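FOLDING PROBLEM:
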Amino acid sequence: MTNPIRLCLVLHNHQPIGNFDGVFEQAYHDSYLPFLEVFEPYRELSISLHTSGPLMEWLDANHPEYLDRLAVLVGDGRVEIVGGAFYEPILAMIPPRDRQGQIRSYTHWLEQRLGAQVQGMWIPERVWEQSLTSDIVEAGIKYTVLDDSHFRNAGLRPEALQSYYVTEDNGRVLSVFPGAEWLRYAIPYGKPAETVERLREIAEQHPHAVAVFGDDGEKFGTWPDTKQHVYGDGWLRDFFDTLTANRDWLLTSTLADAVQAVPPAGKIYLPDASYREMTEWALPVDRQEQLDDLTHEMDTDPRWKQLEQFMRGGFWRNFKVKYTETNDMYARMMMVSRRLEEIERKVGETSEVQQARQALYRGQCNCSYWHGAFGGVYLPHLRNAVYQQLIAADNLLDQAIGKSAAFVEATVDDYNFDARQEVRLTNDKLSCLLTPAAGGQMYELDVRSICHNLLATLTRRPESYHRKVRGGEQQDDSGVASIHDRVVFKQEGLQDCLHYDQIPRRSLIDHFFDNDVSFEDVRDGHAMQRGDFATGVYTAKVRRNAERIQVQMTRTGNAWGIPLTITKGVTTDAGSNTLEVAYLLEGLPPNSPLHFATEFNFAGMPAGADDRYFYQGTGDRLGQLGEHLTLSDVTNLGLVDEWLGMDVELTIDRPTSMWAFPVQTVSNSEAGFELVHQSVAVYPHWIVQGDAEGRWSVTMHLSVDTRLAESRRQQDSVATTSKV
């Protein structure tokens, strides 16, 4: 064949910030190492490899010998190292200064450690917006890989996608390769001979064609059932043998070599997009279900292949609408990014500023900001890791400006980008965010000493795949299925665990229930709201003195149609690890008792272990944090997580009934449908009746004790020092 085709195999290896060390290690032994061992002897083959920064740092610390072997292949020209943003953020989600900073810092790291000449980059999740072009080029990148769907959405026919194109923004020019969706599904699930035969057909029809496979390296061993298929059954060796046998017309090529050898097919401007499945996951649930039904309905229609290319899903940024928790993390990240920029201008490039920037970059890791076939935002350890980095960055920035003594402050701004004002109440121990215009709720509570957000929880909400959970569909075990096609249940009875919340899971949510409402109805999200306070607009004012600040929020609304006023104050002192929460209800009818409750949620304290437990009084244990509690006439409830080294106690100045239960979601992951613990919900509740003036009040103290964690840290520091 006189016109060979170039096949660019671009692997993307990634583990997110916060993933368990055992997951890194397992993926190393199941995917990264065996792939390298199979690839090394095939000296005629070459690949492009992107390894994300979190994974690369872990490999450098735990398996430097792997990177040394990789560096040899880089030196031989057999592996091209593809760069990117250091900690794998969705580029459209972070400010331009952070995009460029992440790309440049990772390029420098790769050049220093592997001797690589980085010219290309991986776009995380192929989330593309045309304006990214300028920042990417400014950061020193010449080319990247997107999906062929991006190009089809721009109007190109499938037959025009057998090479790469150039695109431009503000005079900056970038080469863009279309990764072939058919190759993503063929590798490693199809037969190598059939894949090569299709490549032959393309080569015969398109002289000097370039075909690009760009997808996760974890497909080669880590994804379910693939280890046996790829290595045990010899799929990868068969694939490499087949490529080698056809190298007279089928050249494996790095992206760098392809750019040098083949001219671009033309210029293109690409619409906002990601890979097809991602755009579907970003849709609202009802529209996602409608699209899924329509796709299945049209699948046998002869016109579908022509129509399908014009189908478009949603827009990645709308994950911040679909999941309020994603928007909360995003807004918190933006708060840190802006503060970093301001402090850097004031104090310069100090060591604290440098460390804060790295923590910010780590907190931008994308995986917990969305959800699809992977757990994503549903995984508490990933959300916790993001907040841990962002809180650590804030602590470092305080150090950078010399804020070391006890302090307390309150600031007001539109922190979550909803065109309404939020209040941030902060001292040297705790930091909370309050949203007066949405129920006077508290939606973040940072424990600064251990960099933990006690409100990094998740709301139980419908998902399109819940239809499969209800139906109890099972996986067809014939062959190896893509994770997009698998239906696996990791636990039995998940259909009975599908419960949905009427209101996002936060704290200081003010409920009026039926007087005889059942614990089960509250737990399962069925209890009717009989008031308009839970999400209603409160007015707010901040009362300040040097050592103590109170945020006071007031709303005049109704319960059961009865006009009422609720005033709640959240107060803290400089140096205090306690929030005081005081409620005053006014306008209560003299002869109509009402059922009032306020809701707290405590996240990052999972169930299922004896060292995570409830207690009452002076320490009497009430069971693990997965227990369902209905308590009467109590004045305190404590939650302990000995692994975190944290004791959270709620004390109340009047006898109180209390409900407590775990909040669990049924979510999708690459391993199947699973039940995930999200938070512990605690509801102090009362049958309230006003005094002679129609008033009723209660004061609660929420205290967070981290002395256990701090003593461990001190012991570790002493042990490290003694070793040195």
